[in-house]
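Researcher: Good morning. I'm working through a list of sequences from a screen, and I'd like to move beyond sequence-only analysis. For each chain I'm collecting a predicted structure so we can compare shapes side by side. This is the next one on the list. No need for commentary yet; just the structure.
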Amino acid sequence: MDIKSIIRKKRERKELTKDEIRYFVGKLMKEEITEAQAAAVLSYIYINGLTEDEILYLSVAMAESGDMIDLSDISQNIVDKHATGGIGDKATILLMPILAALEIPVAKVSSRGYGISGGTIDKLESIPGLKTDFSIDEFKRNIKNVGACIMNQGLNFAPAEGKIYKLRNQVACENSLPIIASSLMSLKVATGSNKIVFDITCGKGTYIKTYEDARRLAKLLVRLGKALEKEIACVITNMNQPIGYSIGHNLEMRETVMALKGIISQDLSDVVETLGSVMIALATDNKDLNANVQMIREVLQTGKAYEKFKQMVASQGGNLSFLEDPELFEKSKFVIPVLSTESGIVESIDADIVGSIATYLGAGRMKDTGKINRTAGITINKKIGDTVTVGETLAYIHTEDESKISGTTQNLKEAFKITNKKINTKSRVLEIIK
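Model: Good morning. Structure tokens for this chain:
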């Protein structure tokens, strides 16, 4: 067995054995194959696909490349939520204290952001002092004591997945459904949760562009979950416009804190309520999704979710004064309005353009060693369906670099399409599959 024979098999559309997949992952981790050879394997997977058995083998091999967590001594129903990425997505941060306030333990292992989709770890680390680098024992202790904890995947959880994730982006294989599925499942196998809800985002603001591909991925994940004895549900959501009003780390954390205090945009609320209701249904005997939504609204309205978030942040070393007064989050030197040159109704907002601009401003990293600017980003002032007149503000650009203002202002304006037609706004939630 050697790497060239594996490359040839995938090129010839032949099925790899469990041992061949383990060999590939093992040699990748030991750096005993070249990046070109690893890229060739991924490229042929992209072109020719994988069988479900191959996806299962790859998931387990990546999970076993690092540490594994057993959470069964905490609860038989540890719940997790994972999104496939999106512009301005802060739903995970909101759901952790909401579920914990309902006495449903949440264990989250996440990675730092790469590309235009910001990472949950990066966003939370905007709170001064907050740490996510824990030992497994500390992670489990926080879950027991608080009910929720988030830990950095970069320590040693499914490290092969991290390598493949970066490589698949570098060689334009980021939208390969077999690789996405095995990547997602490897993390869940490694990190111990047995009840998992996936937010499968589709549209311009994520790498799964079509609803049809999102459905295929969702159904595949549910089948893989059964094979791995994990209960999985998928919520398909639309990411054709940014979610909420903020894109960028400090900006999103301010919006998150305000949401926990009861000030939340309708589209973000819809997604959080749907995902949360499905998470509750998986982890408890409460199968009525509408009743579960009411439970979520109650812990938000009574402030229980906000208090749980404070407890969670404190347990991870974060400075609580930034939650009590979110205006303490540092702001950019330049905050520039983007003005409309048309009157009408916002028909669409190109989330891909918005995310790319936010990354260019410094809110995202395009290589794993890149730094982020926590103050940089974009706030949206008009959403799809909103009325706008000439001279009204569509959005604001937040930057420390004056030289980036002119070009990004024009580009961001072009992300908004204005029409004179009536727009019927639709829920971001497209379907629940389980």
